[in-house]
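Final report, results section. Input specification for complex C-07:
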Amino acid sequence: MPTRRQFLQAGIAGGVLLAGAGWWALRGDRRPAAGLQWLDESSAPIVAAIVPAVLEGALPQDAAARRTAQREVLEAFDRAIAGLAPAVQAEIAQLFSLLAMPPVRVALAGVTPPWAEATPAQAAAFLARWRESRFALLRAAGEALCQLILAAWYGNPASWAAIGYPGPPSLGERRA
Amino acid sequence: MIPDPVREGIADGWKVVDAAALDGDRRLEADVVVVGSGAGGGVTAEILAQAGLAVVIVEEGPLKSSSDFRMLEREAYPQLYQESAGRQTADKAITILQGRSVGGSTTVNWTSSFRTPPRTLAHWRSAHGLARTGEADLAPWFARMEERLSIAPWPTPPNENNDILRRGCEQLGIPAAAIRRNVKGCWNLGYCGMGCPTNAKQSMLVTTLPAALAKGATLLHRARVERLLASGDRIVEAEVRGVAGPGARPGVPVVRIAARHFVLGAGAIGSPAVLLRSKLPDPHGLVGQRTFLHPTVVSAALMPAPVNGFSGAPQTVYSDHFLDSVPVDGPVGYKLEAPPLHPILAGITLTGFGARHARWMREFARLQVVIALLRDGFHPESPGGRVRLRDDGTPLLHYPIGDFLWEGMRRAYLTMAEIQFAAGAKTVMAVHEDGRPQASWGEAKAAIAALPMAALRTRVVSAHVMGGCPLGPDARRAVVDESGRHHHLANLSVHDGSLFPTSIGANPQLSIYGIVARMATALAGELAPAGGRAKPAVG
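Structure output:
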């Protein structure tokens, strides 16, 4: 675990890197990954790595249903970003550019392997670290990633049976 | 089939234009341009159109109506809310629910209807110098709008989520009461926040806007007012661009609308933004300052029996005890209410992630939630926030939360936990990053006392944005006078929640309806007899 001093330095370095990442993210040549409209080849694996950590205990147990659910969460996350204000989209692009840089992933997120190989436990440790951070910027980023994933899952009817939500009532039956 | 009055109206020939679908620039003329179609714009449009004035209503959001309202959060939030229901303050510490479609927030609000509290109006008189906006001045206007929008006591018993609030208050001897609602033939479904699928809610979408359109008003939707252009002390033209969706930048075609008078009703973030983008006179730097939110904290409880907080009218019980029993300008007071519980809203509001979060979601049907809305803006240490423009011209609200509000939020957590335990809760948890389920009031009390109150640890939400263009007689302290007329421009008015010099201390829709009905009626009297009607036409 990093010491408080190392973490402080990492936080300051993160701020500097964010400025650089902003420039990188705004180059304008982001191309969406296959089947997606916003996430690209470098950001989609980050989201895919985080989803099992955020939704631990919520995703279906069955392996096939779980794979489908994870893909649908990724797609809903992607659609949700496209519906945010352009300025907010740019901030999220900055965040992903930052997380995609290997030195940042290792030093600031604490994730050693590439995102595509990160375990749910490593992703969870990253989220916990950011959400507990003394830096509001990192807390906000950790929070945003979790909320987008939670919204993507709990908006999906596949999540409802497990939480006892019957879905919206049928207006037709009410009228009959 | 449930009739859809909006689709029927369009079939009958209402003048409705989708600005994002225009193939080229347009010019329109009108007597009055009304910017925004929510509580302020809707009431204004009806009153002016009925006076015989040619009105063009410009709404940034899309036109959606009952046929589109499918009671699905994942559709409703991107379609009907600002920034897909994810609008946040600059530091991301407060999430703001605000409407963004024809009808504005009235299309998605939870129908709670309160007159402006007399103590709020008295404070406006004593602390802000308002001379003509007292309880007696406004009473006839509230009565008129209550009749227009069927605002009345609601006879159906509250759903369990609200009844637990009522029972807990009763156990503790805290006064609580039923909320009046603007509904007609309500089915008690519980989906007001996703657009009323049965048109029972008497929002602007099914009342004032259809009346204005039937009188010949023009509605331009998916249309953002970029700037008002001034010449001397008069606005001459509104510059409007189509906006395809919440994530889109404004498009190329420009609609220019010339008019005799301009009314801002774009809400307490949107109206200051139009003024700031237009660089209109603001010699005292008031525009966008003192913006208030009723910052709201949340307490979650698990009950022994099902609550099913997604079902039934969402908000029907309240307590003003912690507003009424304290000085209005002392330590911050708060209003207690209950919110609707739906999977996305609950999922993103409950803190944490992974197994801890999932455990609470699995108990979703037994979940009970109380919210405390803080009455901000009445104390020197509660100056509110400030709307500024981003580089791309869109507004961003800066709202730092200081110790004055943190202290009130901690008190509110305590109050809510005590009420929930008194109503029989098995466990109660302050919705806070460090909140943990507590099994008794004694344990909860100690845990809440120890919570670190800080941005992005304490979950803070808002559904009421107010202020930023305050009304008042003194041009050094107010943007508009008590008639809603701009202090420095001859033909510009503000008619929405941005008028308020403080927060309201109650859900604001009826405050907007009443105050704006009075302003719009006076404005109609000034503009209508002068004649010189212009016919609005796209061309």
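Chain A touches chain B through 46 residues (CB under 8 Å). The longest helix of chain A spans residues 4-25. This concludes the modelling results for the funded period.
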